[in-house]
C-alpha cells in the first residue's frame, strides 16, 4: 500500500479525530441534535463564512446573554404602534397616515428637538409598514446579534437610524420621517457586506444577495411612489438609502471579522472616513441652516394660551 494519502483522506481523518476521541464517544454522533443546537447551526451557516468559525461558534455559544437588543426594540415598536392605534379608536389602518403631531416623529420644523432624529424609528404609518420592518428586523437582526453581540448590532442599527434622519434633513428637507426603515436597512446592508466580502465561502451566496436586493428594491420603490403620489404628509425615502449606506460602512467598522487582509484594512479606514465626513456635514448643515418654515401640509400650532386647554 502506498504511503501517500490524498488530501481528502487526511481531512477525513483529522475531522474524525476532532469529533471522536475514544470509542466511547461514538454514541454522541448518533444522538439527534436539540432544537437549540439546530438553531445555532443555522445561525452559524447564515452569518459566518468559514467552516472553522462555524464549528467554533457552535461549540461555544450558550445564549448567555440572549439577543435582547433586537427583541426589546421590536417590543417597543409594537407597543408604540398599539398606543397610537388605541388613541385613534382602536383601529389600525394598513397604510395609515403618519401621526405628525407625535413628539416622536421627525419633523423638519422641529429639528431643534434633537431626540426626534432617533425616536422617529419607533413610530410607523400603518400595520403593513410595521410588519415589513419587524419581519426583516427579526430575520436579519437576531442572527447578527447572536454572533456579534448586542453592542455591535446596536451600533449598526443606531447608525442607520441616525444616518437616515440626517440624510433626509439635508436631501429631502420638507418631509417627515416615521418608521424603523433606516435601522432595518442598516442591518440588511451589514449582512450583505459580510456576504459580499466572503462571497466564495457563504452558502447560497448568490441566491441570498439576489433575494435581499429584490426585497430592498421593492420596498424602496414603494417608498418613492408614496413620496411623490400620496397626499400630505409626504414621507422621505432618503432614510432607506442612507440607512443602508450607514449600515454598510459601520458594519465594516464594528462587526467582527475572522481575518483582515490589507485591502480590508484600507476599506475599514475608507468606511470610517466616509461615515464621519457625511455625519459631520449633515450636523453642520442642521446647525447653520436657517430654521425650516411652517410646512404647508400641517395644521398650524395652537396659540400658546390655548395649549393648556
UniProtKB/TrEMBL annotation:
<feature type="active site">
    <location>
        <position position="240"/>
    </location>
</feature>
<feature type="transmembrane region" description="Helical">
    <location>
        <begin position="68"/>
        <end position="86"/>
    </location>
</feature>
<dbReference type="InterPro" id="IPR022764">
    <property type="entry name" value="Peptidase_S54_rhomboid_dom"/>
</dbReference>
<feature type="transmembrane region" description="Helical">
    <location>
        <begin position="209"/>
        <end position="228"/>
    </location>
</feature>
<feature type="transmembrane region" description="Helical">
    <location>
        <begin position="117"/>
        <end position="142"/>
    </location>
</feature>
<feature type="transmembrane region" description="Helical">
    <location>
        <begin position="234"/>
        <end position="255"/>
    </location>
</feature>
<feature type="domain" description="Peptidase S54 rhomboid">
    <location>
        <begin position="112"/>
        <end position="256"/>
    </location>
</feature>
<dbReference type="GO" id="GO:0016020">
    <property type="term" value="C:membrane"/>
</dbReference>
<dbReference type="InterPro" id="IPR051739">
    <property type="entry name" value="Rhomboid_IM_Serine_Proteases"/>
</dbReference>
<comment type="similarity">
    <text>Belongs to the peptidase S54 family.</text>
</comment>
<keyword id="KW-0720">Serine protease</keyword>
<keyword id="KW-0645">Protease</keyword>
<keyword id="KW-1133">Transmembrane helix</keyword>
<keyword id="KW-0378">Hydrolase</keyword>
<dbReference type="GO" id="GO:0004252">
    <property type="term" value="F:serine-type endopeptidase activity"/>
</dbReference>
<feature type="transmembrane region" description="Helical">
    <location>
        <begin position="177"/>
        <end position="197"/>
    </location>
</feature>
<dbReference type="InterPro" id="IPR035952">
    <property type="entry name" value="Rhomboid-like_sf"/>
</dbReference>
<feature type="active site" description="Nucleophile">
    <location>
        <position position="181"/>
    </location>
</feature>
<dbReference type="InterPro" id="IPR017213">
    <property type="entry name" value="Peptidase_S54_rhomboid_met"/>
</dbReference>
<dbReference type="Pfam" id="PF01694">
    <property type="entry name" value="Rhomboid"/>
</dbReference>
<protein>
    <recommendedName>
        <fullName>rhomboid protease</fullName>
        <ecNumber>3.4.21.105</ecNumber>
    </recommendedName>
</protein>
<feature type="transmembrane region" description="Helical">
    <location>
        <begin position="267"/>
        <end position="288"/>
    </location>
</feature>
<keyword id="KW-0812">Transmembrane</keyword>
<keyword id="KW-0472">Membrane</keyword>
<feature type="transmembrane region" description="Helical">
    <location>
        <begin position="154"/>
        <end position="171"/>
    </location>
</feature>
<dbReference type="GO" id="GO:0006508">
    <property type="term" value="P:proteolysis"/>
</dbReference>
